[in-house]
Amino acid sequence: MRKKLSIFLTGCLLFSSAFCQEKTEREEENNIEKDLSSSTSGKNKVRLALIIVDPAQLERYNAFLKEEIEASMRLEPGVLALYAMSEKEHPNRITILEIYADEEAYQSHIQTPHFITYKEGTANIVQSLELIETIPLIPELKIKESIK
Fold first, then answer.
1. Is 141 helix (H, G, I), strand (E, B) or coil?
2. Neighbours of 111 (CB within 10 A)
3. Are strands 93-100 and 45-53 parallel, antiparallel or unpaired?
4. Element (H or E) spanning 123, and its range?
5. I need a labelling partner for 110 at 20 to 30 A (CA). Which of 9, 11, 25, 145 fits?
């Protein structure tokens, strides 16, 4: 009877130890995530827009995109970067790196006439849109301006 009780208690201790370790690791991961998000709060808003465009209307989409990005970069000081690219093998799959000074700059951006024209003009062209919020890992790193 004592041997069975000893085995049972040993099993309970092992389970309890593993459970506590797993809980501690989860708490540490949550603390790291909180530290990362709090260190970037109030700073740049950075995200990726993953877009799939109707291949038959790609040229039309690209015209809307070019007009919108050029106007945003020229007219909006809070828009720090809008860098659009397409996949080589699938040119209708577009990714846009978006960097705004902060959330307020982004909210202002989506109210501009040029952005509204882009959204309305591409509504029937865009087949899929996924917005991925990110946390900059090196927030002080800046994008170099190319020399022309």
1. coil
2. 8
3. antiparallel
4. none
5. 145
